[in-house]
Structure formats: structure tokens, C-alpha cells
Amino acid sequence: MKRSALSLLMLVTFYANAQYVSPVPTRQQLAWHETEFYLFMHFGPNTFTDKEWGEGKESASIFNPESLDCRQWCRVAKASGAKGIIITAKHHDGFCLWPSRFSTHTVRESKWKEGKGDVLKELSMACKEFGLKFGVYISPWDRNHPDYGTPKYNDVFVNMMKEIFQNYGPVWELWWDGANGEGPNGKKQVYDWRRFENTVKQFSPNTVVFSDIGPNIRWVGNENGIAGDPNWNFLDTAGFKRGIGAPHTDTLNQGNYNGKQWIPAECDVSIRPGWFYHPAEDKKIKTPQKLFELYLKSVGRGANLLLNVPPDRRGLINEKDSIVLADFKKLRDANFTDNLLKEADTYYEFSQKDFSQRPLLIRGFDSTSSAYSINMQNFIVQLDQPTKINCVVLREAIHLGQSIRRFNVVLFNKDKPVREIPGTSVGRKRILTFPTTSITSFRVYLEDAGGNDNISGIAAYLIDEKLIEK
Ligand code: FUL
Predict the structure, then answer these.
(1) Are residues 201 and 86 in the same domain?
(2) pLDDT exceeds cutoff 80 at 356
(3) From atom 6 of ligand 1, which residue's Cα is the shortest distance away?
(4) Is residue 14 one of the residues assigned to a domain?
(5) Burial environment of residue 67 by CB neighbours within 10 A (0 to 12, 13 to 18, 19 or more)
(6) Ligand 1: residues within 6 Å at CB?
């Protein structure tokens, strides 16, 4: 490339970056960010056949969770600190957990409660009672419905969504699975996504919609519960589709650095190897420590954690899972309750010599709401006495966008810098862990953010060293 062309390219790139204005979340997305951690529940005929992907030919009569108790699910969810439950109302096998008028493969055709049962009704009511958000997974792929593979199926799917919104709403999050295989007639469906999106807008405008590419929440690109580092809340969706045709998994994992739409990542992962309950996996449940690690790699990178805990054949969350969930909660409480900065003072860097000036900000982390922020470039946190820490949590005021592109946290003991923790994205929450270090102060340098560094919270902890990756 000629020199002049290269300089022009550099100029254009510089200009494009300089001009970049971060998109901002909608009110619904902002509220979604605050939910942080919630449960996924895969439940249906697969629970009884020991399959992961039912074929759609299973007899409806096998669905018979004799002790089903959605209030027990909610109790377990509450005790784990989860903020909501997303239920597989219809998985790929097409079986509906509600008596849909648009299918003949539903709870109504099952043995359960002599065909009078309705899981969506019981769960939506229990969620209301327990103050949990109610979310619905509905698979567009349907291996049972006779209309699948024809334009008529798009009507069916729209009608099913309407039924759900009208009979069980409010639906907080709607989950569209990207898998798209053949139906009973051997054909794949051509989905009318625009119509599906319009149906949500019209009948449930506050619902946030998840899929590979949003429109409101994106898949994180893996099913391991791990967000990218960095993790940008932006995605460019133009030219991409759901399923095959979605952006590269790395892009979903990290987002687009200069993306045009605010489409944050949700990390879905199962507490067991499979998504549905299988008795043989009772011994393969993730440990509370493993879940804590995933929490650091999802929520700790500014994403949300959607943890699948599948009800068993009785229709209950298995004791083995609920014990692990309660212990996971205990780990989060034990390690993130004692913010060591409560008594610390925080200063703008330029005010460091002027300690008579009133300290500026943030003593607590969670005490500062996300609606509050201060435009703060580099700053200093001064502790009263030497303190051991191995974790710093930063929070960006994302209602104003995501503008921090690079940061460095420098730990000091007296005047000596003892450790640097460089990083990139912050977003809603950034949890940084490092070997235990005794400090008297630390500085946070926010770089490359065009002067819009809106830190809205900061905290430091001494967490159990066994929970920190070496
Ligand atoms: C995938 C599905 O094929 C799995 O069965 C599961 O529901 C997972 C959450 O999404 O696409």
C-alpha cells in the first residue's frame, strides 16, 4: 500500500474511533442487567425418556410429574439468590408445557393431572408469589408439529407466543433457541423472524428477547458459562442470522468493540452435563466452587449467568442440586459481603495532595445505584491501614453506555507500587482477582475512554484463596 493511502486509512480509522458514540441500553435491558443471575429449567418429555433432544414422536402420556411443585422450584431459586426462572415451555420435540390451542402434543394430552395440568400457569403464579421474574424458552424448531416446514407454522408460532403473553404474562425474558432442524415432513422451516419480533413488540413490549443475535440479549457463543475478556455490550447484527449464519462464536463471546447496537451477553450453562434431568448424572453435578468460578467468568465480566437446574421426574428440583445451589449462595455471600473499602476514601488523582478536600465518591459498591455515576478519570483509593486484598470490583454506569476501553489498577504499599492489574472492558460489573496483596492504597487508571469514564462503584475483598485461579 502506498504511504499516502496508508496515512489516509489511519486517519479514517482514527476518525471512526474518535467519532464512536456508545449505544445505550433500553430501560428493559438496564433492568435485565441488574438481574445478574437466574435459573434455567429444562423440563418435558425428555425428562422421562432420558433424552436431550426428543424426536417429537414420544407419546404425550409419558409426561407425568406426579409431585410437581413449582413453589418448591421457586423456594430453591430464592435460596440460591437467583432473580428469576426461565422454563422450556416448548423444546425441539414440540411438547407444550401449557395446553396450547395450536398443538395436539401438550400437557392436555398427557396423563399428568388427567390432562388438566398447566406448568406455565403454576410456574408463572409461583414466580409472582415469590417475587421472581418469569421467563419463557420457546424453541422455534418443532419436531412434532404437522405444519412445521410450511408457512402455516409461522402462524402457529406467533399464536403460541400470543397465548403465552396473554395467559401467563408478564414474560420478562423470551428465549429463542437457534437450533433449526427438520420437522416431521423432513423440511426445515423458513422462520418469519420479523413477524415474530413484531409479535413481541405488540403483545409484550417490555419483554427482553434472547437469541444468537438479540434483538435485546445475545448468546455468549458457548454453553460453558464463560463470557469473553473483553466483553463489549455491543453487537453488529446487519447481515447475520440466527442459528447457522450467526456471527462467529468469538464475536458473540466478546461483542463488537465498536458495535452499533446494545446487545449484551447472557451465559447459559447447566449445573449437570446435560440440559435435561438424567438420573445417571446425579453424581456429575458441578460443585459450588465450580459455580463460583463461572460466576467470576460471567457476571464478573459484565454478563449475566443463566444456570440450568433441571427438575427431575417427580417434578421437583433434586435435593442434590438444591444443596449445591444453597452452598453456591453461601460462597457468594461469604466472599462478597465484607467490602474492605467501606471506610476508605476515594479521590480524584489531581486532588491527592489535598486531603482536606472532601473525598469524592464511593464507599460502598452496591450502595451506589446504577443510576448514579461520576465522570471520573484516574482516581485513588486510600485505606486507613495496611489491608490484604485479592479482589477488586469495578462497576461502570452503563445507563450512559460502555466507554471504558482499557484500565489499570495499581496497588500500592506505602508509596511503592506492588502489583498492576491491567484490563479492558468493565461494563456492569468487573470482578478482578489476583494473589493476595497487602496494600495501603490503589489507583485506578481509566484509559482510552474519550473522557467518558463513568465508574459508578468500586469495592475490594479478601476472598478465599482457594477460589482464585492460580
Ligand atoms: C440448545 C438446545 O439445542 C439445547 O437442547 C438446549 O436447550 C440449549 C440451551 O440450547 O440450542
Answers:
(1) yes
(2) no
(3) 275
(4) no
(5) exposed
(6) 52, 177-179, 268, 275
Whether the model pTM is above 0.85: yes
3-class DSSP state of 152:
helix
Q: pLDDT (tens digit, 9 = 90+) per residue, 7-48?
A: 655 555 555 455 678 899 999 999 999 999 999 999 999 999
User: Which cell numbers in the block locate residue 316?
Assistant: 421437583
Please state, in angstroms and as integers, the Cα–Cα distance from residue 469 to each residue in 156, 293, 294, 435, following that order: 48, 8, 11, 9
5 domain residue, yes or no = no
Question: Does any domain span residue 462?
Answer: yes
Instruction: State the distance from the centre of ligand 1 to the C-alpha of 166, rounded, in angstroms.
Output: 25
Residue 60 shares a structural domain with residue 128: yes
Domain that holds residue 144: 27-336
Q: Dig out the grid coordinates for 38 from the structure.
A: 437466574
What is the tens place of the pLDDT at every residue in 392-405?
999 888 988 998 89
- Locate cell 474511533: which residue? 17
Among 275, 302, 336, identify where a domain stops: 336
- pLDDT tens digit sequence for 221-234: 999 999 999 999 99
Evaluate whether 24 touches 262 at the Cβ level (below 8 Å): yes
- Which tens digit of pLDDT belongs to each residue from 403-446? 889 999 999 999 899 999 999 999 999 999 999 999 999 888 88
Closest ligand 1 atom, CA of 53? 5
Q: Given the CA of residue 175, which atom of ligand 1 is nearest to it?
A: 9
CA of 376 to the centre of ligand 1 (A): 42
Residue 436 belongs to domain with CATH number: 2.60.120.260
Q: Is 379 found in the same domain as 270?
A: no
Report the nearest atom of ligand 1 relative to the CA of 137: 7
Taking CA atoms only, the protein residue closest to ligand 1 atom 3 is: 179
Cα 216 to ligand 1 centre (Å): 19
Whether residue 17 lies inside any domain: the answer is no
